[in-house]
User: What shape does this take?
Amino acid sequence: MNATKKLMAGTCIVLTLAGCSGMTHRERDTVIGAGIGAAAGAAITGDVGGAVIGGAAGGLIGNQVGKH
Assistant: This one.
């Protein structure tokens, strides 16, 4: 069962990265910022609301960083 979980996780990671291959730098920075913000918001508050707010804030920051 453990090997199956690892295979499924690896497959999901590969498919996720393949889906991002056609993004511009700004789009990629927005997605990365949203992901980091959601993880940080969930870790700080421990609930879904914190993850949503963190994801929104991180997405905005990532979008502005990607402007160049």
Remarks:
- Helices lie at 2-19, 25-45, 48-65.
- The chain has a mean pLDDT of 84.
- The CA atoms of residues 30 and 63 lie 4 Å apart.
- The chain has three helices and no strands.
